[in-house]
Write a structure and sequence with these properties.
alpha/beta; TIM Barrel; 40% helix
Length: 251
């Protein structure tokens, strides 16, 4: 995040500070860098009273892309939103139209899977694949890929309860979407039941999918895919402890 994730206006970016940040990344060879777009974005519905929200969503996503490029980030991650009663076909058309309006010169977009609550779009591999295929068919130029959140996968009903189950889930993703389109994994445990359609994150090793996470972290096919923990709390446990727990998990 580079601004308030729950606001329509991310605020003005200090370009001098952005340049210093980009220089720091290069100096310390910190790559790739991901910027997560605001949570209010909804490109999946633009009919009726949702039309103003759709227009603001396109503008907010563009603002996040502009900030990412000023900050020298390679990727922008965003949630697709909710269809709010619209058909799947109309939602797909709205999504592709919104993405086609974006001005992008250097960054790539990563579509993040959802946990499946309400009319959320992108909770299934099939739906993510349809968005990517539709963009290709239209010749949409912004590079598109996928960010998989493990807690969202579990909430949406994908099985990560064991090493074997996690391997099957990753194999299914590869078959339907392709591991070559996987740009990032949000590596989170989850405290809720499978297929609860709830987006809840838990500290690694303290939730219901630790065995599956271990298999994912040790999967040779995923060795080059960046992984980011989004576990709750800023100090308890500390970041150092979180990393120790992660290393212990994947031994």
């Amino acid at each position: 995040m580079s601004g308030n994730p729950s606001a329509w206006n991310p605020g003005k970016l200090d370009l001098a500070e952005a340049a210093r940040f980009a220089g720091y990344l290069d100096e310390h060879d910190i790559r790739p860098v991901f910027l997560h777009a605001g949570y209010l974005i909804n490109l999946a519905c633009r009919t009726g009273r949702n039309a103003p929200i759709y227009a603001k969503s396109v503008r907010l996503l563009q603002a996040n892309i502009d900030r990412a490029e000023a900050l020298s980030c390679e990727y922008v991650v965003f949630h697709l939103g909710s269809r709010r009663g619209a058909t799947a076909a109309r939602s797909l058309e709205a999504l592709l139209d919104g993405i086609s309006r974006l001005r992008i010169s250097r960054t790539a977009l990563l579509l993040e899977n959802g946990a499946g609550s309400g009319d959320t779009v992108g909770a299934s591999f099939e739906e993510l694949a349809r968005v990517l295929a539709g963009a290709t068919a239209r010749g949409i130029s912004p590079p598109l890929g996928i960010c998989l959140d493990t807690a969202h996968l579990w909430g949406a009903g994908y099985d990560l309860s064991s090493a074997a189950a996690a391997r099957r889930t990753i194999a299914e993703f590869n078959e339907l979407v392709g591991l070559d389109r996987l740009g990032l994994i949000h590596f989170n445990d989850s405290p809720v039941a499978r297929a609860s359609f709830r987006d809840r994150h838990e500290h690694i090793g303290h939730g219901n999918i630790s065995a599956g996470l271990k298999a994912i972290a040790r999967r040779p096919q995923l060795a080059e895919v960046p992984m980011i923990m989004e576990t709750p709390g800023a100090s308890n446990p500390s970041d150092k402890q979180r990393m120790r727990d992660l290393r212990e998990l994947v031994k």
